[in-house]
Amino acid sequence: MNSRERVLRAIKFGGPDRIPLGYHVTPAALFEHGRPLLELCLRHPNDFYDVSECVALPEHDTAHVRADGSYYMEETDAWGCTWVYYQEGIAGEVKHSPLEDWANLETYQFPAVSSPTPEARTAMAQVKERFIGWGSGGSLFEQMQWLRGVENLYMDIAEDADEVYLLADRMLEEYVLPTIDLALDAGADVVGFQDDWGTQRELLISPAAWRRIFRPRYARMIERIHAGGALAWMHSCGMNLEILPDLIDLGLDVFNPQLDCMDLARLHAIADHRICIYGALGIQQELPHGTPDSVACYLSTVTDALATPDGGFIYHVWLADGNPLANIEALFNAVEACRVVIPSPCESRSTGDMGNTGSVSVHSSSDDQERHSVTSPELGSDTPSPPGVRKWVAQEQLCDNG
Predict the structure, then answer these.
(1) b/e sequence 358-367, b meaning 16+ C-beta within 10 Å
(2) pLDDT, tens digit, 9 for 90 and up, residues 198-209
(3) Is 80 exposed, middle or buried (0-12, 13-18, 19+ CB in 10 A)?
(4) Beta-carbon neighbour count of residue 311 at 10 Å?
(5) Of the residues 44, 123, 175, 377, which has the maximum number of CB atoms within 10 A of its CB?
(6) Phi then psi for 72, rounded to 5 degrees?
(7) Is there a contact between 30 and 323 (Cβ–Cβ < 8 Å)?
(8) pTM for the full model?
(9) What is the pLDDT averaged over residues 155-174?
(10) What span, in angstroms and rounded, lies between the C-alpha atoms of 176 and 168?
(11) Mean pLDDT score, 75-101
């Protein structure tokens, strides 16, 4: 089973041979650890791209190092947002927004979306020989913040300003949907979009405001992706379990949360056999502050909580600066120890051509519950799993979970 089939089976609950692994290596981490980190990544293949082709040691940007040794860079992007960067290799902050005055909204021009090209289709076809074809749908909420200014937009949402709806609709019609169409034209299997919706403890805005303003627009995005024959994927950091049932109802196929913000039992209760979780592992605590032993134990705990032999879970590692190399290596080693699926002997599966995103069917002896059927945002950790679904059995127990 190659990486493409493994990931598609995990997303569609089609029984992968092992839990897929995806990771992103930030330039800041490569600046910190250099070649030892690159070589470590080369020893642990990524199920989303070829590390040898996509990850390389970056060159330092010496042009923006000031006399005192600090880093500072300022640039204006295609949207007219001015970004400031205080550390090389990580994201910056928007310091000037072109729509700080709503009077500019009517005449504001969105960046042009590229036209489809035969070269893009050829490149996507080549990727799909080994991996899923990925296309970007950009962001809605985050781009609105950058255009309007973070504080301004939150006040606008609290006041239910008409301009919020106008900006959201223009974003959708003039940029997000055309960007999705571009990815679909290239032949993407998956179209992903990203909006961070949570603080450490709760949603950034009221769930009622989210459902009033953003849910119907996400519905259109997901509908467009599915109509084009692709799977819909969303990244969102923070504690956002309040809206996960909504996203499941809308048909979202993959959710990429930050697991440090989540109660794993509640996440599993909401997501189990309804949506695939691409779970970001140990970003806040274990990777930067743990030990190799505690990292391995954490990985085992997460695997037991969220993985099933049918699929529905993918490991996600975000490699940032500040993580000891020994902890990164311990996490990769624990993934290899835990990721092999032990299928249930009483389950019956039939799978079509997994290379076709619309061709997978999964059958179990007594589980006839439909995916995408959760409606209650208050679904608790004691909610039972669908009948007949076996729990994950880890290949190797790396800690005593009590």
Answers:
(1) eebebebeeb
(2) 999 999 999 999
(3) middle
(4) 25
(5) 175
(6) -155, 125
(7) no
(8) 0.86
(9) 98
(10) 10
(11) 96
Structure token digits, residue 354? 């997994």
Angle between helices 215-227 and 177-186 (to 10 degrees): 20
CB atoms within 10 A of CB 251: 17
CA distances for 314 relative to 56, 66, 135, 293, angstroms: 24, 41, 18, 22
81 in Cβ contact with 98 (< 8 Å):
yes
| Start-to-end C-alpha separation, the chain | 35
Q: Where does residue 35 rank: exposed (0-12), middle (13-18), buried (19+ CB within 10 A)? A: exposed
In a domain, 303, yes or no: yes
Task: Identify the CATH number of the domain in which residue 8 sits.
Answer: 3.20.20.210
Q: How many domains is the chain partitioned into structurally?
A: 1
Measured in degrees and rounded to the nearest 5, phi and psi for residue 279 equal -85, 120
How many other C-beta atoms are found inside a 10 Å radius of the C-beta of residue 400?
A: 7
The three-class DSSP label of residue 347 is: coil
Half-sphere exposure of 181 (CA within 13 A, CB side): 12
Count of positions (residues) in the chain:
402
Q: Does residue 134 fall inside a structural domain?
A: yes
Q: Would 343 be classed as within a structural domain? A: no
Domain interval for residue 157: 3-338
Residue 65's pLDDT band (boundaries 50, 70, 90)? very high
Q: What is the DSSP letter of 71?
A: B
Place of tokens 């199920």: 47
398, part of any domain: no
Contact present, 307 and 342 (Cβ < 8 Å)? no
User: How many Å apart are CA 346 and CA 363, to the nearest integer?
Assistant: 11
d(CA 319, CA 380) in angstroms, rounded, equals: 31
The two structure tokens encoding residue 268: 């599993």
